[in-house]
Amino acid sequence: MEPPLFTPGELLCLGSSLAFSGLFYYLYRKKTRVVARIQEAPKLQVDDDLPALVSAADGRCLPYVALEGIVLPAKAVLTSHYHERLQGVIQKLLLKEHRLVWNSLARSWSESERVLSEQVYTVPFLLASPDTEAVTQVSVESPLRAVCLPLEVVYERFQQPAHGFRDLLGQYLSGEKPKGILETEELLRVGAGLTGIGELALHPDGSLHLQPPSQGADYFLCLGDWQTVLEELESASGLWKGAAMLCAAAGLAILLHALCRAFLRARLRQQREDKELDSEEAGDGGLEDSCVICLSRPRECVLLGCGHICCCFRCFQALPARLCPICRGPIDRVVPLYQA
Q: Where does the signal sequence lie (predicted)?
């Protein structure tokens, strides 16, 4: 029975590599499209010429722009819990527990974390021009729908628990050891430079609004300029591309390995068949030309007067009687046989 081209393990690895390669390529293409759209988007700054520019667009809306400005609160403002002088418009309070978990397979402790509490607060805020004489302001809508929040850490404290002997004994028996609790506060501060990438619309009351794109494109808010977002997306795109190529190369290696193995099997089978055929031909030739007495040496003489060619000269000399081994007729004389 002919063995299958792929073993079950190879089929599993080949299917997995192709599936992951397709997934990573899809993510790479998605990131590439986002990068291309950001590169093509108009790069604007908040100034007094902005309302006229948006008003001249179709539907008084620019579908996708990169807008730079300074963060200002619309009305109320958020104050840091730990620094009274710090004020912001988005605040995130995070409480995270860090633990060490025993990995019996690796025979070592590995770190894990668990979010105990996460609170996000936001107030309406605007993007304004760095020029104090400009009066145009843009309202930033739905900041929590952005791909990631443009926050910076303003407070961080790690609290380590105190362990007694009984606690340590229980931790080693349970395989879990609390490492500590990390408390952080992140803030989008008033006065920070912010770049928003999304839809810019002029409302009937004359106010400008930066909002998530209605066509389903990604909505970005980031500290710094638009090139920061672009570099991060290009880095992620390159990562997905490399992962897709690596998985495709793994699948190709498995395929080539199976094909080479099948080729070697066919080659060995052909060599074996050729060898058997040569042996059969050599065997047939040996039976026809070999001495009928010893079956090993070639026939070397002609027995007269019957004329049979049936034995080698050594076996002829060893005959007990001068009779032909074939017809049992008397042998008058022997003539050597010469084969050209």
A: none
